[in-house]
Specification:
It contains one helix and three strands. The chain has about 80 residues and is largely without helices or strands. The protein has a three-stranded antiparallel β-sheet with strand order 2-1-3. A hairpin with a 5-residue loop joins strand 1 and strand 2. The N and C termini lie far apart (about 35 Å).
Length: about 80
């Protein structure tokens, strides 16, 4: 099950469950659309894979399967 991480790993922008700006790679590294597009050129800086839009967990499942509250914040050096 996806963690639904709460923020962009690079810029720390909030990305709540219902965000349409959250993108994830196959390892669920989570970034905002601006960082993916403007900084990383659609390539995950952690694994080298591509990104997909993160799905939004249905409201009726949030209580049983809440999104993660653990923030991953590891800004990447950009050349």
């Amino acid at each position: 099950m996806l963690e639904i991480r709460p923020n962009c790993e690079h810029c720390n922008k909030d990305l709540p469950n219902d965000s349409t700006e959250a993108l994830i790679c196959t390892f669920e590294c989570t970034f905002c659309v601006d960082c993916v597009t403007d900084i990383f050129n659609q390539i995950c800086p952690n694994c080298g894979g591509g990104f997909e839009k993160r799905p939004i967990r249905p409201l009726n499942l949030l209580e049983k399967h809440p999104p993660s509250v653990v923030r991953v914040f590891k800004p990447k050096k950009v050349n």
